[in-house]
Structure of DUF6436 domain-containing protein:
Amino acid sequence: MALSKKNALLAVIIPLWLIIATVGLLFSSKSTEKPFDPSGALYLASNKPDFDSQVNRILHGALATSLNNVVVHITSNNDCLCQLTATRHIKSVKDAAEHIGKRNETVYFENIQGLSSILTSTPAIAVFDDLGNLSYLGPYSTGIGCLSGNGTVEPYLDVKSTLGAIVPLESTGCYCRV
């Protein structure tokens, strides 16, 4: 008889625990899902005719090297949960870029003069084509947790030449405000 009371108690506790855990996860994940460009700075900058050359100038100045076939990983010195959760995806993007012959460079947002007028969130990534033209600027991924399954940058890693940068302005996910 005691065993059936124990089973009945478990039959109530386990589903209740699952419901509470699911609601908690949904609540916490929604609280970390934010727009990549909440202030509209990237939107405004990307509508200017010299946007691509402005980004090239800023990042070329920070790296003091050619941007041909370069992937620039833009991070922040500030500790942020979203930067931590994106670590595995960032590594997989770096590995993919290296595999196709691109050079990876990592820069810290705070150390780059002029970048704050364009970007207000990290982690971010800038991909440059064979000619050193900007082909992508934005987040690594979208959605809850910024996981590699939601990657937005991967299709742009192997672009040979572009007519202009892809800038995903409507992205939402786990991003750090800078």
About this structure: The mean pLDDT is 87. The CA atoms of residues 80 and 176 lie 6 Å apart. Strands lie at 33-35, 70-75, 103-108, 121-122, 124-128, 134-139, 172-174, 176-177.
